[in-house]
Specification:
CATH topology: Thrombin, subunit H
Structural class: mainly beta
Number of domains: 1
CATH superfamily: Protein of unknown function DUF3599
Strand order of the largest sheet: 1-2-3-6-5-4
Distance between the termini: 30 Å
Shape: flat
Number of helices: 0
Number of strands: 6
CATH architecture: Beta Barrel
Helix content: under 10%
Radius of gyration: 16 Å
Largest sheet: 6 strands, antiparallel, barrel
Strand content: over 45%
């Protein structure tokens, strides 16, 4: 991949669960990556989710392999939108990772 193709600024965050000391847990967001990527919308479909009309968009995010590898369930913030990572395909040879993401609109 040509580095010039990584034109979109993204942030990847992950939910972190911590013990609250009284038998429960506290959830907080931890940023694991902030940098450049290629983001492309692949397809869009209308549907019904939870009794409401939604549009589900699938995005492909390609980026250089960060120090902390992304996981399914991580949230990518891109142009003010939240994309949920559904699949991770690392290419260790090329030091890239492809992420299949979903955005509900």
């Amino acid at each position: 991949m040509n580095p010039g193709e990584l034109r979109e600024r993204i942030t990847i965050s992950r939910a972190v669960f911590e013990d609250d000391g009284i038998g429960g847990s506290i959830t907080s967001e931890s940023i694991i990556f902030s940098g450049w990527a290629s983001v492309a919308a692949k397809k869009s479909k209308d549907g019904l989710l939870g009794g409401r009309d939604v549009e589900v968009r699938t995005h492909l995010v390609i980026m250089r392999m960060p120090g902390t590898e992304p996981q399914k369930g991580d949230v990518i913030t891109w142009r003010g939108k939240s994309l949920i990572v559904k699949a991770v395909r690392p290419d260790y040879r090329a030091a890239l990772v492809e992420l299949d993401c979903v955005q509900e609109a």
